[in-house]
TrEMBL record:
Keyword Endoplasmic reticulum appears in the UniProt entry: no
GO molecular function terms listed in the Swiss-Prot or TrEMBL record: ATP binding; ATP hydrolysis activity
Keyword terms of this UniProt record: ATP-binding, Nucleotide-binding, Translocase, Transport
Protein name as it appears in the record: Iron complex transport system ATP-binding protein
The protein's role, per its UniProt record: Part of the ABC transporter complex HmuTUV involved in hemin import. Responsible for energy coupling to the transport system.
Domain annotation ABC transporter: ranges: 4-238
InterPro entries: AAA+_ATPase, ABC_transporter-like_ATP-bd, ABC_transporter-like_CS, P-loop_NTPase
High-level lineage: Bacteria, Pseudomonadati, Pseudomonadota, Alphaproteobacteria, Hyphomicrobiales
Keyword Nucleotide-binding: yes
Family, per entry: Belongs to the ABC transporter superfamily.
Amino acid sequence: MNLLEAKAVSVRLGGRNVVENISFSIAAGEFVGLIGPNGAGKSTLLKACLGLNNASGNILLQDTPLAEMSAQARGRAVSYLPQEHEIAWPVSVRHLVELGRQPWLKADGGRDFAGRHAIARAIARLGITELAERPANTLSGGERARVLIARALAQTTPLLLADEPAAGLDPAHQIGLMKIFRSLLSDGHSVVSSMHDLSLAARWCTRLIMIDKGHIVADDRPENVLTADNLRAVYGVEAFFAEAKGGPVLLPLDLYSGV
């Protein structure tokens, strides 16, 4: 059973096709990086997979058509970390993380015992214990990002879709986040994350889907996707490739001259 399956998905926005005839599936235990230049359709595709964009084609979560699932069922199957990190209300950080448990709350008001552990673990994993009682709207950009990641983790879904989750984080917290995402795989969970940082994508993802102009250009292991030819054709850059501490290193160096 796939956690997510997209079949011939297309999204039209502003009179143009932003995503066109895309198909892929996500199995358990994968960390998939969704990469491509600005405007390639990455965020639009993620939203389509959640039912947040009108899309043609078929999208299934755990073999169930997305259109046939209730909001609660969707919330138990997939969590979403949006690109925007705005927090408008002065609720505490702890309360904001607790909101990730909404899909699991019972109609009769019964206690969510599993939620206590999930909330505490998410707060600890993101290193925000000292922020727990602070108003969430007073935090820095990086702190807000970590709190919203904790909320998504507290939802304890098999699949997490994240839109640029490392944006705004310093290098230590970026690496820490990548390690958290990789740790989820051992429990059979999967992560699909749009990413602009190709060095993080190369080193931490188990698979990459490269998108350009609304189409999939490559879908394979990082070393087979992040090739010199693909980087020139899709990003228009030259890059440095190496190995360090058992993993790949990629550094964009210059614009591709076409010569």
